[in-house]
C-alpha cells in the first residue's frame, strides 16, 4: 500500500479496503478520509495541542456523567462532561470548523443533543449497556468519536454493521423483537467493522440507522476518547447537567469567535 502525502483524500467504498485501512497495523499508511454506508473516518484531524486540551479538560472536569445518570452501568474509570473553555482556550470540538465537518456528514439540521464528554473505558469483565448490539433512539442520531489514545483490538472499541436491512432501520434490537430477529441475518451478511484508529482521528457513525456495540476485552489497555452526539431533536431524557448555562455560552462566543453559535442548541435557554 502506498503512503498518502499531505491532505490527500480518498473514499473507499468496499468493506475489504475499509478493513485494511482501519487496521491497527496500517495506522501509518491510511487514506485521510474513509467513508462507507453511514460510517466515516477522518484521519489525523486534530493536532496534538487540541488532544492535550481535551485530555486535561476532561481530567479536571467535575461534571461526572455516570453519577448524574444512574441508568449507566459502566466500568469506565472516568466519564465527564467537557467545558466550553479551559485555561484560556476554547473547546476544539465546539468550533465552527469542526461542527461544519460533522454537519457535512450528519446533515445541515443536525444539532448537538448534549454537552460533549470525555470517557476513559477500562478493560475487564463488567457490564456496559453499550455492549449489546443496538441502535440509538433519537431521529437522525449521529455519534462522533475522537480517540485520544490508540484504539486497537486490545482496547475497548466500537463495532458497526456497515449495512442495515431497511425494514428495521431506526429500530433498537434490544427493544424491538423484529429488529432482534433480523440482527443475526445482518451479521451473517455483513462482517462488523472494527473502528480502530490513532489519536486525532474522527469517527462519525449514523447510530440511529446502523446497529453497533462496544467491545471490551478482558485484558488490555484503556481507551481514552471524546464523544459527541447529534440528532434532529433534543435528547429524549434531558437533564440540566447535559446543557451549558446560556449566559456562559454568550460570554464564550464573545471571547472566542471560533466557537460555533449553534452550541445554543445545548443551553438552558433552548
Protein topology:
Blueprint: H1 15-21, E1 33-36, E2 39-42, H2 48-60, H3 65-68, E3 78-81, E4 85-86, E5 89-90, H4 96-106, E6 111-112, E7 117-121, E8 142-147, E9 157-160, H5 177-189, E10 193-194, E11 202-205, E12 212-215, E13 223-231, H6 246-255
Antiparallel strand pairs: 1-2, 2-11, 3-7, 4-5, 6-13, 7-13, 8-11, 8-13, 9-10, 9-12
Describe the structure.
This protein is 21% helix and 19% strand. The protein is built from six helices and 13 strands. The longest helix has 13 residues, at 48-60. Mean pLDDT is 76; it is low at 1-35 and 68-73. The chain has 270 residues and is an alpha+beta fold. The chain has helices at residues 15-21, 48-60, 65-68, 96-106, 177-189, 246-255, and strands spanning 33-36, 39-42, 78-81, 85-86, 89-90, 111-112, 117-121, 142-147, 157-160, 193-194, 202-205, 212-215, 223-231. It has one domain (36-242, 251-266): q2cbj1_9rhob like domain (Jelly Rolls, Sandwich).
Amino acid at each position: 500500500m502506498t503512503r498518502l502525502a499531505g491532505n490527500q483524500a480518498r473514499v473507499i467504498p468496499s468493506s475489504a479496503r475499509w478493513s485494511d485501512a482501519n487496521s491497527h497495523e496500517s495506522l501509518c499508511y491510511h487514506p485521510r478520509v474513509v467513508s462507507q454506508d453511514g460510517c466515516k473516518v477522518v484521519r489525523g484531524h486534530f493536532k496534538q495541542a487540541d488532544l492535550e486540551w481535551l485530555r486535561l479538560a476532561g481530567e479536571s472536569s467535575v461534571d461526572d456523567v455516570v453519577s448524574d445518570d444512574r441508568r449507566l452501568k459502566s466500568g469506565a474509570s472516568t466519564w465527564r462532561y467537557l467545558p466550553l473553555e479551559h485555561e484560556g482556550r476554547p473547546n476544539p470540538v465546539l468550533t465552527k470548523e469542526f461542527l461544519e465537518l460533522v454537519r457535512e456528514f450528519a446533515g445541515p439540521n443536525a444539532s448537538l443533543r448534549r454537552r460533549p464528554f470525555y470517557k476513559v473505558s477500562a478493560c475487564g469483565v463488567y457490564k456496559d449497556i453499550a455492549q449489546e448490539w443496538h441502535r440509538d433512539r433519537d431521529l437522525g442520531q449521529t455519534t462522533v468519536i475522537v480517540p485520544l489514545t490508540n484504539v486497537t483490538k486490545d482496547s475497548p472499541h466500537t463495532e458497526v454493521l456497515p449495512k442495515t436491512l431497511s425494514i428495521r432501520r431506526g429500530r433498537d434490537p434490544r427493544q424491538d423483537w423484529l429488529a432482534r430477529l433480523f440482527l443475526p441475518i445482518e451479521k451473517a451478511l455483513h462482517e462488523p467493522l472494527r473502528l480502530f484508529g490513532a489519536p486525532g482521528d474522527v469517527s462519525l457513525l449514523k447510530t440511529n440507522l446502523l446497529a453497533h456495540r462496544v467491545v471490551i476485552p478482558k485484558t488490555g489497555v484503556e481507551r481514552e476518547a471524546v464523544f459527541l452526539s447529534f440528532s434532529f431533536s433534543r435528547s429524549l431524557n434531558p437533564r440540566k447537567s447535559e446543557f451549558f448555562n446560556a449566559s456562559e455560552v454568550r460570554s464564550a462566543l464573545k471571547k472566542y469567535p471560533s466557537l460555533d453559535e449553534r452550541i445554543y442548541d445545548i443551553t438552558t435557554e433552548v
